[in-house]
Design goal:
The chain has 136 residues and is of the alpha+beta class. Helix content is 32%, strand content 21%. A hairpin with a 6-residue loop joins β1 and β2. It is globular and about 55 Å long.
Length: 136
């Protein structure tokens, strides 16, 4: 079973003559441990694909499956929980909460998941203190 899978994933913005097809029946499989890069020119659908895979947007057609769970039937609460537990995002414009420090921002998903403040902060500090992986 693939960790991430899309089947005929399509996203159309607008309707009628002004409709723009951002993704047109994209099929993708990502296996556990696999590393992929999504590359292409501006406007080719990279961000749209990642927003759909992350459950931040809904497809016009097709399906996204994360770790065996189809996203199309999940409500907002279930999607938030899935993102918190299974998906990590690093946004281009980092989207940190400005009133929180780095440790508190990193600890927030754990707090939302019911982990105590002390344990959340300790894990966040551990993550932030790790050296970067060696170059390949």
């Amino acid at each position: 079973m693939s960790l991430i899978q899309t089947s005929n994933l399509t996203k159309i913005y607008g309707s009628g003559e002004t409709a723009v097809t951002a993704l047109d029946h994209v099929n993708l499989k990502v296996e556990a441990g696999e590393f992929i890069a999504v590359m292409g020119p501006s406007g080719c659908g990279k961000s749209t694909l990642l927003h759909l895979i992350g459950g931040l947007d809904r497809p016009s057609d097709g399906q996204v499956t994360i770790d065996g769970q189809a996203l199309d039937h999940l409500g907002d609460t279930a999607l938030s929980e899935l993102r918190r537990r299974k998906i990590g995002f690093v946004f281009q414009f980092y989207n940190l909460i400005p009133v929180l420090n780095a440790t508190e921002n990193a600890a927030l998903p754990l707090l939302l998941d019911g982990v105590s403040q002390a344990k959340s902060n300790a894990r966040a500090a551990e993550w932030l203190g790790r050296p970067p992986p060696p170059p390949s």
